[in-house]
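(Fold this chain)
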Amino acid sequence: MRRLIRSILEADPRLEVIAEAGTAREARDAVNTYRPDVMTLDIEMPNMSGLEFLDRLMRHRPMPVIMVSTLTRKGSDVAVEAMSLGAIDCVEKPKVGASEDTFSKLADTVVLAARARVSGPRPKNQTITPRQNRTFQRICLIGGSTGAVDAIERTLQSFPSDCPPTLITQHMPEPFLVSFAARLNPLVAPEVRLAVDGMPLIPGQVLIAPGGAYHLNIEGTTTLRVSLFEGPLVSGHRPSVDSMFLSARHMAHKVVAGILTGMGRDGAEGMRALREAGAKTIGQSKETCVVFGMPRVAGELGGVEKWADLDKFGQEILQLAETPIGVRAE
């Protein structure tokens, strides 16, 4: 596997492979000696798991890391946990006998990761007690991509059990999204589930786009329901943040749209359309984004009404959701 990864990365003129390691100890020594810009890290390693090594690395020398994982349920569970610890992204490990086409985007992923802003882990005693019994006027739509696994978890930790109906589109493969929803549910006060076609939007529930062949959209006016739309890529993605945002234009005055860290521009056009139609909108600040891509473009297009640092993002989006329809927030 290391030979395959090396051959793919060395073939790209933008990259130089400066070291490789077969164990966590070798990896630690290589990091200290060569100071790489990016590391690819297998979840399965001898003596110490990739997850344990990643946790230690992020505490002592935070840096961009791309995880290499199988798309099994177990592999997806661990990969999502790795991204919550600070890994930038996860690429699928080729199956036995498969061509290296599985790694076709590996070089681009590594190049983009080199630009990411990586910080150390959150203090373990940093907890938020969500305020209950608030009157929410609007539903929440949240989109994210690279670096947003941790950002979404931190945002939802501010949400009370009676939070506004919330839909989330996060760019990840379908098995990862299954694991993501399962991981979030016990960690936050609201109920977190994968969205199912036709589900009503109700307070206290957070629905995650299931991905695969489907976009997560909204349908209805008085009674709002999930619509899983089977269609082509939108803004280069499926599930797409733009698809979700644009599906809510008809009820924009009842929406708060938030955009979190991520590469590219998915969600920017939809956020502009929502704001122009009367929605409240909020973007994650440049200083706290792992990759200031999607929020940056949304801001440039005029779609972002308000900016917030990540540690305040959840509280700010809830405050906007309390804003009476037709009244401007201060």
Observations:
- The chain has a mean pLDDT of 91.
- The chain has eleven helices and twelve strands.
- The longest strand covers residues 139-144.
- The chain has two domains: 2-113, 139-322.
